[in-house]
Amino acid sequence: MESEAQPDKDIGSQGLRKRILQMGHSWLTPFPGDEVQVHYSGRVEGGAYFDSSRDRGAPFWFKLGQCEVIKGWEEGVATMKKGERAIFTIPPDLAYGETGLPPLIPPNSTLIYDIEMLSWNTIRDLTGDGGILKKIMTEGEGWATPKDGDEVLVKYEVRLENGTEVSKCDEGSEFHLGDDLPCPAISKAVKTMRRGEKAELSVRFSYGFIQIGNEVTRTDGAIRPNSNLIIYLELISWKSVIDIMGDKKVLKKIMKVGEGFDRPSEGSLAKVAYIGKLENGTVFERKGSREEPLELLCFEEQINEGLDRAIMTMRKGEQALVTVQADGHEVSGMVSANSLHHYEVELIDFTKEPPFWKMENHEKLEACERKKHDGNMLFKAGKFWRASKKYEKEIYLE
Known about the structure:
Blueprint: E1 9-11, E2 16-22, E3 35-44, E4 49-52, H1 53-56, E5 60-63, H2 71-77, E6 85-90, E7 111-121, E8 123-125, E9 132-138, E10 151-160, E11 165-176, H3 184-190, E12 198-203, E13 216-217, E14 229-239, E15 241-243, E16 250-256, E17 269-277, E18 283-287, E19 294-297, H4 305-311, E20 319-325, E21 340-351, H5 361-380, H6 384-397
Antiparallel strand pairs: 1-2, 2-6, 3-4, 3-5, 3-7, 6-7, 8-9, 9-12, 10-11, 10-14, 11-13, 12-14, 15-16, 16-20, 17-18, 17-19, 17-21, 20-21
């Protein structure tokens, strides 16, 4: 975006000045460690130009904050946005000082640079010790990133620093974040990536391969334990996995995101359809369909407790795969102890109980009596936690 030249502006307290010739087209600026691409021309104040990337016909690249350029550049370029062009007046203390750079730059020279910010590659130190450096090659979509437990789908290519291919997966590889992987760097990096993002990882040997997996590989000999790696990584997609109980005995993998933000609560009338399967794929239970859904009251022991709790975390229209550990929750007689069973479930619709402030007095009294009765029955059955929830609701209604 073209604009009139702006007045000079001080940057810092050491005499660096900046005058914007052309405004940038973003609010983002580069961070230390980023690879910056600029065009520039430089001259001594009151003198002729001594250097120009435009004359050479190639942009200039450098890493910000790595002492690859003079301090005036470090401080000035860090304030620039993509597409911005500015004139920087750099005092000797932030340039070449008392020694200068003979024969082009005399001692104690103030320098004038015309710099245009073309772009930059974002580089992040993911471990804080330089063990995994991530350079974003293609920005991803949105702002969400996967978390531990989520099922991610990635493509990757692993090479040694000399270019030798170690491992490659073009078709896409699925794994759960938090699982032990042959290369810890991949798992750590994926948690910082957005959907569709492509990145290049520079990996020190301590974060590299523990062992080589069974993907398509070509090693041309053994990989020494101290081998550093270059990994090209793409996050294709992921499915969120929710630990419903906090003990990994009931896990919900979202297959299709639902509508809005509201979810059923205890006592809500839910319309669902689900299929229960054993680990070998055998169907042991099938309830409801989209055309004729199963209607149930949430948390009223009408279905498996683990599935019931999972449904209460779903949104309207959501489809999920719920995995329940049989030793933690009651299951069908077809399911043996300590096995896993899987429910493909869809929450078609739900209706919440009316809030107490919308009830007539007689409705409040009836609801209190009902909650108290249900609580007493649960208490007698030894289900103390569920009984306490009923009593809490009774007190709330009163």
